[in-house]
Amino acid sequence: MPAGNPRPDEEIERVLVVVAHPDDVDFGAAGTIAGWTRAGIEVSYCLVTDGQAGGFEPDRDRAEMPAVRRAEQSTAAGHVGVKDLHFLGYQDGQVEPTLDLIRDIVRVVRKVRPQRLVTSSPERNWARMPASHPDHMAAGEATTRAFFPAVGNPYAFPELISEGLEAWTVGELWLQAHPEQNHYVDITDTFDAKVKAILSHVSQHPDPDNMPDRIRAWNGQNAAQAGFPEGHLAEGFAVIRLG
After folding, report:
1. In whole angstroms, what is the distance from residue 197 CA to residue 181 CA?
2. Which residues is 45 bridged to in the sheet?
3. DSSP symbol at 206
4. pLDDT tens sequence across 92-138
5. Residue 38 belongs to what H/E stretch?
6. Residue 212: is the preceding peptide bond cis (ω within 30°)?
7. Strand, helix or coil at 116?
8. Where are the beta strands (DSSP E) in 54-150?
9. What is the pLDDT of residues 17-71, one digit of tens each?
10. Would you give the distance in Å from CA 165 to the centre of its chain?
11. Nearest to 24 by CA among 137, 120, 105
12. Which residue segments constitute the domains of the chain, with CATH numbers given?
């Protein structure tokens, strides 16, 4: 994959992140997002499902999970400066890149009007199978189809025009957990915020005490691959620029 060539952050006003489950964005991009919001960029989240199939507590009433996980994601978002969250309410474990899902993502993109779109890779990463959950890939595929061509095509989903949502061109697509990363962001200064965001998903962590070290190891590997100085931490992406 060619080297990533994103626009300078100074040229970006708004970013939208679309992921399948609460906590997906925090594992993949929370450090980067914390840096963006500190720089004055407005970041919004779109959660395809409520993560109702997640968790490790057998005695919990499963009917509670959607509300629990929405609340956890809202708390996590606050740790990295994000206040605008959109929940689509699809069923966890059953996400497919359907026309309905693509339309619903296009609707959110046209509302937010971002210059940068972040999502999960639609391609399976055989070296990181947990990151290639089928819901992740389906959400990534639907978001990629929304990115091009649907969001910018006024004749795609004409019902959205009647809702006052005009076509919009998003210039960049950033993919989390892609098999071929071409851009790394140094998150050394925002790592603590990332950890707080991840640990906000209390229902998902049977061993929270060891989680910070695991995250540090992952992000340390990314920094080494990027060639950053020893002791630095990084998140990696595949960045695609439209045009």
Report:
1. 23
2. 17, 85
3. S
4. 999 999 999 999 999 999 999 999 999 999 999 898 888 899 999 99
5. helix 24-38
6. no
7. strand
8. 84-90, 116-120
9. 999 999 999 999 999 999 999 999 999 999 999 999 887 777 777 788 899 999 9
10. 23
11. 120
12. 9-241 (3.40.50.10320)
